[in-house]
Specification:
single chain, 112 residues, 41% helix, alpha+beta, Arc Repressor Mutant, subunit A, two-stranded antiparallel ribbon
């Protein structure tokens, strides 16, 4: 998957852009997507994912955004789910988390 996260210095306002090249990542649609996330939101969601997976060891992807929202004391809205999905893909690409193979649903865990 072609993923890029810019540093704070590359964007005014401290934004992080995560681009997903859908032709490389099979779980995505055919068009290219980009999610722009403020640096502080990126760090909050990133750290929440780490905390949740540290506590649970492994988790269904479909439950991850709810757990992140609870950890962040936020209500469930589209941005939490979208940010969590985008950052999860970024973390997979960076080797921080991994999908557990041979499961009927997508489970993820921190890399060993």
């Amino acid at each position: 998957m072609k993923t890029r996260a810019t540093t704070k210095d590359e964007f005014k306002g401290g934004s992080t852009v995560i681009e997903q090249d859908n032709s490389i990542h099979p779980s995505l649609t055919n068009r290219r997507k980009a999610v722009e996330i403020s640096r502080s939101s990126f760090e909050k969601v990133f750290n929440a994912i780490i905390e949740v997976l540290s506590e649970k060891k492994e988790m269904r992807f479909s439950d991850l955004h709810r757990a992140v929202a609870v950890k962040m004391h936020a209500t469930l809205d589209n941005s939490i789910a979208i940010y969590t999905a985008a950052i999860k893909l970024y973390m997979e690409h960076q080797g921080i988390i991994e999908r557990i193979p041979a499961r009927d649903q997508q489970y993820i865990r921190l890399m060993q």
